[in-house]
Write a structure and sequence with these properties.
heterodimer; A: mainly alpha; Non-ribosomal Peptide Synthetase Peptidyl Carrier Protein, Chain A; 4 helices; B: alpha/beta; Peroxisomal Thiolase, Chain A, domain 1; 2 domains; twelve-stranded mixed beta sheet; about 35% helix
Chain lengths: ~80, ~400
């Protein structure tokens, strides 16, 4: 799951895979901006076929946090 | 008003990226107008342009940023970087509050906008990049340059059709002469080789339809002219006060000494046929520079290659320069790479500064037989030797927005 999320982010934001850390927030690892977060929410919703709200994940979320949220939404 | 120094030059044009390559092609009279290959433009009445196809080779911009910006911002970022390097300025050593950005643009970033609007209608609102909002509008390059370098001083984007960037240079000089800032990145950028932008330019009705012979299509002041050709690119310079430039031992490439502007106020599209307002703008620029008309030894023409535009430009020059109008060398080098619309004035100024530096009058290609013989056109495909001390640059926009700038050899 975490790897899949990283793959989505790498492709979407054109960042390097090694820049994304499981337990560091997106803000601290890649300095994500608010518009990139909008893109991220849409891309993850499409990738996992889930309903994700902009409030569910933020720039303070880590990859592990995101994985938990995505996992909880799958099958809902 | 005070003279302001140009200490760095960045140029991204169909004739070359970087001033060496650009000037080598300009002085040799090589045309870079070609059939448009970026998309199928064959159904457009005019489908030729000056295109830049190898921007990536020169870029320092990350892929992460590239996906958020239009080509015109990309070109402005490359030109800014070149200008700063050329000026020997490390922006980290500058007070960011005292650095400004003054850029000109006419139409915005349509390659980005068109793609996203298509997605809006095909995929719905979630198909649109959230960067659309900040990518397409004319001031987007100013914002991107500002963010890239952390530049925080007074900055502006001028939108005045094809006169935009010469106006931006004029305003930048005004701001610097009031000592409000230490330095300014000034110029313009335009990327009109996109399906919708090309359509708008075609609708304007002033583009050459000589698609069969692209390199011969743009022929300002020639008997066989049938309109201009669009081009894309960016020209940006570093401007600063002369004392500051001297104190940091910078090479002063040229001085901007005068600027004038006026509006024809007669028609939405066409200029006034008498050229009176353009003449007033030129006189304003000369007065501002404290230079009498007999001291100008080169004029860079606007040269739209449309009867009313060319003829009113000639009328203005004759009215300002009188009997000398037939002696002063004039030319329109953009005939080689296309009219860069909102970036054209800045690119013309850069060409003129290079002409001064090399003591060469750049050629007007395709001007084989002047429709009106009252000016001293630089007939021929090659640059001609001539020392240039003081030059005038003319840039005009739709509906008769006139701007004129005087530059001098340092």
């Amino acid at each position: 799951m975490k790897n899949k999320i990283k793959e989505v982010l790498v492709k979407l934001l054109r960042v390097k895979p090694e820049e994304l850390k499981d337990d560091v927030s997106l803000q601290d690892s890649i300095g994500v901006d608010s518009t990139e977060m909008v893109e991220t929410v849409i891309a993850l919703s499409k990738e996992f076929n889930i309903k994700l709200n902009p409030k569910d994940i933020t720039k303070f979320s880590t990859i592990s946090d995101i994985a938990k949220v995505v996992q909880s939404k799958i099958g809902q | 008003m005070e003279k302001i120094a140009i200490t760095g030059t960045g140029i991204v044009a169909p004739s070359g990226i970087g001033k060496r390559q650009f000037w080598a092609n300009i002085k040799s009279g090589r045309s870079f107008v070609k059939e448009i290959t970026r998309f199928d433009a064959s159904k457009y009445p005019s489908h030729i342009a000056g295109q830049i196809d190898d921007l990536e080779k020169y870029t320092h911009v990350s892929e992460r940023l590239l996906k958020k910006i239009d080509a015109f911002s990309h070109m402005a970022l490359i030109a800014s970087e070149m200008a700063l390097q050329d000026a020997g300025i490390d922006i980290k050593n500058e007070d960011p509050n005292l650095v400004g950005i003054f850029l000109g643009n006419a139409i915005g970033g349509w390659l980005y906008a068109e793609t996203e609007l298509r997605d809006l209608y095909i995929e719905g609102r979630e198909g649109v990049s959230p960067y659309m909002a900040s990518a397409w509008f004319p001031a987007a390059p100013q914002g991107q340059v500002s963010i890239y370098y952390g530049i925080k001083g007074f900055s502006k984007t001028v939108v005045a059709d094809r006169a935009s960037s010469l106006m931006a240079l004029g305003y930048a000089r005004k701001v610097l002469s009031k000592s409000k800032l230490n330095m300014i990145l000034a110029g313009g950028m335009e990327a009109p080789v996109t399906p919708y932008a090309l359509l708008c330019c075609n609708t304007y009705g002033a583009l050459s339809k000589n698609n069969a012979h692209p390199s011969e299509a743009y022929r300002p002041f020639d008997k066989k002219r049938d309109g201009f050709v669009i081009g894309e690119g960016s020209g940006i310079v570093v401007m600063e006060n002369v004392e500051r430039a001297k104190s940091r031992k910078a090479v002063i490439q040229a001085l901007i000494s005068g600027y004038g502007t006026s509006c024809d106020a007669v028609d939405r599209i066409k200029p006034a046929s008498d050229g009176k307002e353009l003449a007033r703008a030129i006189n304003m620029a000369l007065n501002d520079a404290g230079v009498s008309a007999d001291k100008i030894d080169y004029i860079s023409l606007d040269g739209l290659a449309v009867d009313i535009w060319d003829n009113s430009e000639i009328a203005a020059i004759k009215s300002v320069f009188g009997a000398r109008a037939k002696d002063i060398p004039v030319s329109c080098p953009k005939s080689m790479f296309g009219n860069l619309l909102g970036a054209s004035g800045a690119v013309d100024m850069i060409t003129t500064v290079l002409a001064m530096e090399h003591s060469l009058i750049p050629p007007t290609v395709n001007l084989d037989e002047p429709a009106d013989k009252s000016l001293n056109y630089n007939i021929g495909k090659e640059a001609k030797e001539k020392r240039i001390e003081k030059a005038l640059i003319i840039s005009r926009g739709r509906g008769g927005i006139n701007s004129a700038l005087v530059v001098e050899k340092p």
